[in-house]
Design goal:
With 179 residues, the chain is mainly alpha-helical. Helix content is 58%, strand content 4%. Helix 1 crosses helix 4.
Length: 179
């Protein structure tokens, strides 16, 4: 299995809220509710993330359903994601950036437009339910300028590298923790 397939599988698992091996719109949108619950915020606080995830489903993920069964399986996700990344079909990077910005805004508890280590680990802990220490190394690798914060540009850059790089040592591979 390639490095990119490993990362795409991890991403698939993030979106597969009910863990049934199939992505449906409710799974994708459910990521926002799961984060709201883990962060202890009201559901309306995740409206921006919910909207960006709904848009991502409607314009990108739904079109990955090659057999028209109403869901996207892991194989469909991998194959279609690779094709869409290369061609930027459906303006996927713009949609991923919108999701990333909404995700950052949700985690940015102090409102400075950046994610501290605590804010970043809280978000990922909420997504994966793994120990917070799991994400400490990732934070250090992603903090390119070493200022103890992740800017939107650092997050966006890491996310793009995560979804495109086959290089096992690429910094962005750490976005969701160690591979």
């Amino acid at each position: 299995m390639s490095v990119l397939d490993i990362k795409l599988d991890r991403s698939f698992d993030v979106f597969d809220s009910d863990r049934d091996g199939r992505l449906e719109k409710s799974d994708v949108i459910g990521v926002s509710d799961k984060l709201a619950e883990s962060l202890g915020v009201a559901p309306d606080a995740v409206a921006g993330l919910r909207d960006s995830l709904a848009d991502l489903w409607d314009t990108v993920f739904q079109k990955m359903d090659r057999n028209d069964d109403g869901a996207v399986d892991r194989h469909e996700f991998r194959a279609a994601f690779r094709a869409r990344i290369v061609t930027d079909r459906n303006r996927i990077w713009e949609r991923i950036r919108n999701m990333s910005n909404a995700w950052t805004e949700l985690g940015d508890r102090d409102g400075d437009g950046m994610l501290s280590r605590e804010e970043y680990t809280s978000l990922l802990h909420g997504m994966f339910r793994l120990p917070r220490e799991t994400f400490d190394e990732a934070f250090i690798r992603l903090d390119i300028d070493g200022d103890g914060q992740l800017s939107r540009d650092e997050i966006s850059s890491a996310m793009k590298e995560y979804y495109t790089s086959e290089d096992h040592s690429a910094r962005g591979n750490q976005f969701f923790g160690r591979l």
